[in-house]
Amino acid sequence: MLRRQPWTQSRRLAGQHQHGLLTNASCSRHCPVVHRPFSSSSSIFSPSSSRPSGSASSSSPPASAPNVHRRHPPKHRYPPPSQQPEPIMYDQPAIANPIETQKARDNFRKQSRRVAAGVAVALAIASAYWYTADSLKAEGPEHPQLKGLHETPEEMERKVQKAQKELNNSGGFAIIAIKRSTVIAKAVALCVWDYRKTLNASYPSSSESNEALRQCHLRSAQRILKALQTNGGLYIKLGQHISSVILLPPEWTNTMKPLQDQNDPTPLYELEAMFRSETGSSFSEAFSEIDEKPLGVASLAQVHKAKDRKTGQWLAIKLMHPQVERFSDVDMKTVNYLVGWVKKVFPQFEFTWLAEEMNANMPLEMDFRHEAENARRAEKDFADYRKTSVYIPKVPWAYKRAMALEYIDGRRPDDLAYLAEHSIDRNKVSQELSRVFAQMLYLHGFFHADPHGGNVLIRPAPRSSRSPHNFEVVLLDHGLYFDIDKGLRTDYARFWLSLLSRSTPDVMAQRRRLAKRIANIDDDLYPILESAITGRSGLEGSDPDNPNGVKGKKRASSILDMETGSSMSDDETDHIRKTVMEKEGLFLNILEVLRRVPRRMLMVLKLNDLTRSLDASLHTTHGPTRPFIIAARYCALAVWDDDQHQIKERRKRDGLSFGLLRDWFSCWTNYLWFYRGLAFLESLSNIRARTSKILVYTGAIASGKGVSSASKKASGLEDQSKRRQKEEEDRKRAEAAVQKEEDVEGGTGLTKKSS
């Protein structure tokens, strides 16, 4: 009995299972459950979920069917069980603590509503503050952060509004114009009186006479400098031109150099008034930050560092002085009138060329859109170079009187301390400057005509630079550019190559023939043109009436034989000054040369003077002739290009001939001689430059100086410091003399003397 119980129980369970009477609990103990996703269509509360798949509801036995117990197994076989229903699936187990879970959900909903209410209140407060602040600022625009400004935005705005009214006010214009003319006329009259008194005086010795004349130069230059700075605008441009004419006494050129980038700045509120009228935007709308201290102040404009509000990029904002455009017409008419008056009184004093250049160039320089276009064209000219040290800042936007430039952190070429700090070789800087402007003049035919120290920056080369050195030459102020046609620049290149050749009769004849073609100069004025181009006292055969050179020495046969290159020695400076002052009619001949020379060649002469001045300010050690060698190599390229073009034209016209091949071979050998041969001389000058620096450094160490003093001497800082100290002493002495004149004129001198 007991042994059959398991079988009986299992048999009973099988029968119950067959009739669908097993409960879920008993099924779960004996059947494996396969979980499947839970859905409302298969809910456990649905009666149909427990039915076998594929059977009708009428075939299922009722739930109350009696349980038949059999002690013995049936004697007949039962059919196999019908298909079983699929097991019920649950996706998650039942909640263990449903009451606590519901409380947690209610608490979460309550906290969420509180947080949402807090966020809504914060947004409402922020919106109210935003609109309220905007309405409060309606009275005056928000100003950007101004570095170094000690005024409140309200005071700044008040000054801007006042400047705008004065800018539009035409009252008192005639009075101011008369005052400006009087300032310059008074300075000129004092200079004439000073020169007449100095030259008519007698001195015990020639050295004292020369020193008195030098002091007269300094005083006169200082008077003119103050008058030009007082008037500004066009007169500053005239002073810049004086500073670049190498034939003038150095006392004049050195005194005028501050006009390049050290002029009196215009207050920022006056610039903003002009900026609003020009662009329709205030500084606050355009910039998030602007530096009140200008980066540089030139004759027509000044530059400030500012951060663009939209892009966050640092820019160099170039802003025209508000009064420049207003008084430029008056100044130009005044200069034209004075030039015409001088010509009537003194017909030999010809200055019409100066007025003509001013009339043609000033309107272009006063339109910054023209400058932006020049910058883009110059950048395009250098775009095809695989290696070049030139970098031209990008121009994001430009108006007539305001423009934005990419901000460049660099220094002037003559900042030798900056070059030494960044391990930049000043000899290589000089080399690259010569190359850059020679490429523009002889290869591109489109050159920068105002490359003084304030318009050139040197900066360490960034990673993306194409420079072959560790620095870049950044060109600024592209307002004054000139085209030069291929014929003129090729003839000028041939003239330069003739100056590098020895003075044979054929070469001297070629020099004069080319001088006639490029400058309309005859033999009588040729010596002046040669000195103006080379910056030297003249080569052999240039002046038959004055065959001797400096200190009675024989003149050099070519530029390569000169003892001094871009920087004249003191002896040569005295020789030129003495020649100008003592030779009868020479000054008038200089004016005649300036009148005859074509306008493009006049700008080329200015370019030569300025590039030589840049080279001299670097105190290089590469030797006197390297700038001439570099220029001559590009002259050879220009001449070779022109020779090839002419030979091709001859072949098309006359066909191939022995004479054509002979001429081609002659041109080719001439190209090799100058371009490749001068490359060897340039390499020798590089070796000389390095050797000279090493000798200067080791010599300073051997003399007992420290490493710091030796480095300073090798970098040229010591020589530069001595020269600047001398120039500063001369400037202070001249300023004191001019101030004494003003005190006496104003009556204060008598008071001081009596006291």
TrEMBL record:
SUPFAM superfamilies in the record: Protein kinase-like (PK-like) (SSF56112)
Biased composition (Basic residues): 68-78
Keyword Transmembrane helix: yes
Residues covered by the ABC1 atypical kinase-like domain: 259-506
GO biological process, one term: lipid homeostasis
Keyword Transmembrane appears in the UniProt entry: yes
Keyword tags: Membrane, Transmembrane, Transmembrane helix
Transmembrane region(s): 115-132
Bias (Basic and acidic residues): 715-741
Pfam families: ABC1
Record's GO cellular component terms: mitochondrial inner membrane
Bias-annotated ranges (Low complexity): 37-66
Domain of life: Eukaryota
Residue ranges, annotated region (Disordered): 37-89, 536-572, 706-755
Family membership: Belongs to the protein kinase superfamily. ADCK protein kinase family.
Protein name per the record: ABC1-domain-containing protein
Organism of derivation: Jaminaea rosea
